[in-house]
Fold this sequence. Notes:
Elements: H1 11-21, H2 28-39, H3 48-69, E1 73-74, E2 77-78, H4 80-83, H5 86-104, H6 112-136, H7 144-169, H8 174-201, H9 204-207, H10 213-216, H11 222-230, H12 233-244, H13 250-263, H14 266-286, H15 292-306
Antiparallel strand pairs: 1-2
Helix pairs in contact: 1-5, 2-3, 2-7, 2-15, 3-5, 3-6, 3-7, 6-7, 7-8, 8-14, 12-13, 14-15
Amino acid sequence: MARVGAEEHPGALFDPVRYTLSMGGKRIRPVLALLAAELFGKDPDVAIAPAVAVEIFHNFSLVHDDLMDRADMRRGHPTVHKKWNANTAILSGDAMVIEAYKYIARVPHAHLPAILDVFSTTAMEICKGQQYDMDFEQREDVTEAEYLEMIRLKTGVLFGCSLKMGAIMAEAPPTEADALYNYGINLGLAFQLKDDLLDVYGDPATFGKKIGGDILCNKKTYLLIKALKNSNPEQREELAKWLQATNYNPAEKIEAVKKIYDELNLKAVAENLIEKYYLASLECLSAIHVADDREQALISLSKNLMYREK
Length: 310
């Protein structure tokens, strides 16, 4: 991030920004933007500005999400609100949004209206998705369809946006840019479902976050929604007890809820849905008329995301 260097002051505002962006992460979204440009035969560098913007914006959303979710760890490090405080997380996150738009402003004028439209639309959709996510914490009747729409907004649209911005910068035909956007939506849905699965069944040493965080926060993930729907009266009563508990041993709650997931075979159920969206993403990609070898980088990335352990 060229404009947020060591000389930027006050440090209390910019140190958390540098900290967040230096944590690493998969950098999936900027890579998608660059690969999209390359898919249509252009140098990936044409998509650098929107690629950087989307990565900064994504990290901003994580800073605020972690605060709202009361999460302690991100990518194996303390979250911003834990390392500093809640006010710092809010203000530094706001600074990251502004910085993201500065990078969008670097897009050539010929493409700026289209890029600004898809980026701003996506930014608002992500806010809507986060609000649904918070609303769901207070409800016991969240449906599978509502959950999938929420993760489409929280995760899928930023995948789609990254790809579509890369396609726009490469001057791809609008119908093919839209097909690539839909590829990103399906890939994002599969990615988030996998993330939710790893939160319960992942290895803490590789996942980068505490296992069971979603269970402790009563997040209405696909696993919990299916458990509430498919459980027998005894299991439902046990789930209700833990969802309503205010004083409990965290490890005990995680173990008890996971036991019900296991009894209902929900790991396999979730893996089947992940596979469904993964295949749907590849079908969208196949509708784009480019040489097969140009698609290989995106296909390989998709496969790696679906079978990842973190």
